Amino acid sequence: MSLSAKDVSEIMRLVEESTFDELLLEIEGVTLHLRRGGGHSAPVEPAAPREAKRPSPAPADSAPPSPAPVVRAAPAGDPNATPVKAPLLGTFYRAPKPGAPPYVEVGTAVEPETIIGIIEVMKLMNTVRAGTTGTVREILAKDGVLVEFDDTLMTIAEAK
Amino acid sequence: MAIRRILIANRGEIAVRIIRTCRLLGIETVLAASIADRDSMAARLADRCVCIGPARPGESYLKIDTVVHAALAVAADAIHPGYGFLSERAALAKLCEEEGVIFIGPTAAQIDAVGDKLRARAEAEAANVPVVPGGAVSSSAEALALAVRIGAPFLVKAVGGGGGRGMKRVDRLEDLPEALSLASTEAGAAFGDARVYLERYVERGRHIEVQVLGDGAGRVIHLGERDCSVQRRYQKIIEETPAPGLSASLRTRLHEAAVRFSNRLSYRGAGTVEFLVDTARDEFYFLEMNARIQVEHPVTEAVTGIDLIAEQIRIAAGDGLTLQQADIRIEGAAIECRVNAEDPTQDFRPSPGLVRHAQWPDGEGIRVDTHIETGSRVPPFYDSLLAKVIVHGADRAAALSRLRSAMTHTQIEGIHTNLRFQSEILANADFAQGGVDTGFLARLLESPSRPHAETTRG
């Protein structure tokens, strides 16, 4: 089974009418990832990724900008899954560069040395590795968004 | 530029203190905390807390790139560095300047100018501010020639040191070469700068410092002085203002010297110019300038009624100095006791752990700056300051009496503290008389009549 363009627009319509901001759908190897608003989904230039999140200069009389969204990823409840934690604070990227395919997707088989993403700190890219053998079960950290030290980026279902 | 959101790159009581003023000014706060401080009082009080790294300061509070990245990512307009940690690191101020984040403090160039102790000495001399006889030495022959001129005893100081770190006392001329080489090696390891300099050691001196505020455009005012002579191994324990027993002329000369020095740098923000005062000779010498808010700033706030953190933020925001020198009035006297998690019976060993019970004093003229309450945990990774108990009275006697009472109404259970030791100092006749020198506490600790009764926890 595969998704037709009609299916996708139907799903998009359903998401649009729902209260959800994001949908990750996987059907037999096909992954559909929808995100409402798209504010953070557009790939940003690695050269100045932080600029994307700087508020545009506001008039002096405007209200303070609301705090940037907190991405405190919830620890996975699955005891069989190993969390991959952020080793430092920075901006998380799932792909080596904008437009490139992500390092891993849900279902990707990983080994301890497999790169699962990068964390950028003041233009310095730090690779993050899976640290264990298994398959990616859940991806919690969003692309291009600040992750804090010790946040769970994703979980790995360990190989038996 | 208006400051609407501040990232606080610090912890403990000063983080709580900064949040308090931000709330008064309607400024949002984001605390950059290590994982050990995620459940701290400051983390709870801040509008948001971001975890910047592991407990060890080198992997969290001292990481300049991480702090600036966090500030940009949460869209903070400014960074307040507090004291310690990154507060006097020119590299942070410089990176902020490059990234368009306001650094609440002086310029990187000003931090550099006062951070290099030899450079600061030269600036003091150029500003006609007296310095301790001494100077730079690059060889032991040079050092011996200088030593003969200034006379023993000496202090060998690291150019990159400060606050008592990187200092060695030498009593005999023949010990100088060895002390110099040792000091230079240690300074290289500790501060990444092996340069040392030589100064005359003043036997009986008082540590008196002057609080200044500068607009960065050439205008500097002072907010009186603080006497911080009650020190143990260069760590201040009790601070007060006004400094007791100074002649009016000496007090004025100290204030004017601090303003002259700061003016020479076109100093921006809050700063403190420290002096060694020889009251017997009615003389004083420049020691160093601290380019940040200081631990003991509340005594100045108590007698002037001015919120120094608010002034720092206003100056950083570009509002300049809203105060004139004539606006500064010193009313009454204020004294501060630092309550530390340390065990005076075990050579003041740090005493981290769980605070089972905390009771702080309150009442008229009493202020407590703290990050500790019942159930708080004191992590072992940071300094041991639990709280500052600050009292204000109509005069020194009234303040002292109020402080003695306040300290007896302070209870900390679960960890060792210096509370009893503080009460012992407050009861001391020399301290009560006022004007003790920096050797006072060492003499008190060595005194044979001193009771050795501090054995209980609490």
Q: Would you mind describing this structure in some detail?
A:
The complex is a heterodimer of chains A (160) and B (458). By secondary structure, chain A is mostly beta strands. Helices cover 8% and strands 32% of the residues of chain A. Chain A contains 1 helix and 10 strands. In chain A, the strands form 3 sheets. Chain A has a 4-stranded antiparallel beta sheet with strand order 3-10-8-5, with no helix packed on it. Chain A has a 4-stranded antiparallel beta sheet with strand order 7-6-4-9, with no helix packed on it. Chain A is globular. Chain B is of the alpha+beta class and 458 residues long. Chain B has 15 helices and 23 strands. Chain B has helices at 12-25, 41-45, 64-73, 90-99, 108-115, 117-126, 140-150, 176-191, 248-264, 297-304, 308-316, 396-408, 419-427, 429-433, 440-446; strands at residues 5-8, 28-34, 48-53, 78-80, 102-103, 134-136, 154-162, 165-170, 196-200, 206-215, 220-232, 235-241, 268-278, 283-290, 333-340, 342-343, 349-350, 353-354, 357-359, 366-370, 377-378, 385-393, 411-413. The longest helix of chain B is centred in the middle third of the chain and has 17 residues, at 248-264. The relative contact order of chain B is 0.11. The chains are: A mainly beta (160), B alpha+beta (458). The interface between A and B is medium-sized, with 22 and 24 residues.
Main beta sheet of chain A: 4 strands, antiparallel
Strand content of chain A: 25-35%
Shape of chain B: globular
Low-confidence stretches of chain A at least 5 residues in length (pLDDT < 50)?
Answer: 37-74
Biggest sheet of chain A, strands in spatial order? 3-10-8-5
Could you tell me the radius of gyration of chain B in angstroms? 21 Å
Q: pLDDT average of chain A, as an integer?
A: 73
Structural class of chain B: alpha+beta
Mean residue pLDDT of chain B? 94
Low-confidence stretches of chain B are 453-458
Number of strands of chain A: 10
Order of strands in the sheet with most strands of chain B: 14-13-10-11-12-15-22-20
How many helical stretches of chain B?
Answer: 15
Oligomer classification: heterodimer
What portion of the residues of chain B fall into strands of 2 or more residues? 25-35%
**Which structural class should the secondary elements of chain A be placed in?**
mainly beta
Report the total helices of chain A: 1
Gyration radius of chain A, rounded: 17 Å
Q: Please bin the fraction of helical residues of chain A.
A: under 10%
The largest chain-to-chain contact, stated as pair and per-chain residue counts, equals: A-B, 22 and 24 residues
Q: In whole angstroms, how far apart are the ends of chain A?
A: 29 Å
